Amino acid sequence: NCWKRRQRKLHALTLASANIAAGTLGGTDSLDIIGNFTWAGGTITGAGVVHALNGMTLNGTTKTLSGRPLTLESGVAAWSLGTINSGQGSIFTVAANAIFDNSFDGQYQASLGGSSVITNRGTFRKSGGLGTTTISASINNVMGGIVEVDSGVLTLNGGGTSSGTSACCAGIWK
Asked: 90 near 67, Cβ under 8 Å?
């Protein structure tokens, strides 16, 4: 039993930083990204959880999250450009110590078939853009989670649940 635990640990991968601009990040093992994680395009797919341990930058072109869990463990995920396509059982988790900051009028689409879920335990914020950001994935704002709209309109069309807090400061939450 002890040998099996050590063997599994050897298969996990840790990166000092990562920059995905095109192509596909796949696989079945977990991936820990310690430093700067920039996702500017391409596809994240597979079975193992990708852990952004200290924030991430989402910019560039279309990004696809297909069937793989992605967890923002701490820091800020600054989403400033590009559509996010998701589905096939994908789960994006914002941990309790993390902030997902949407600073433009974006689209997080559940467009790949199958389920697409955002689990918010931290802060999910729309901070910029005078128009609308549309989230068509199911968003579960769990206990301790905050959804905050400081600018424009945040439209949640994918359903979900909320046992957390919603704060509509200068913007509108639909």
From this structure: yes
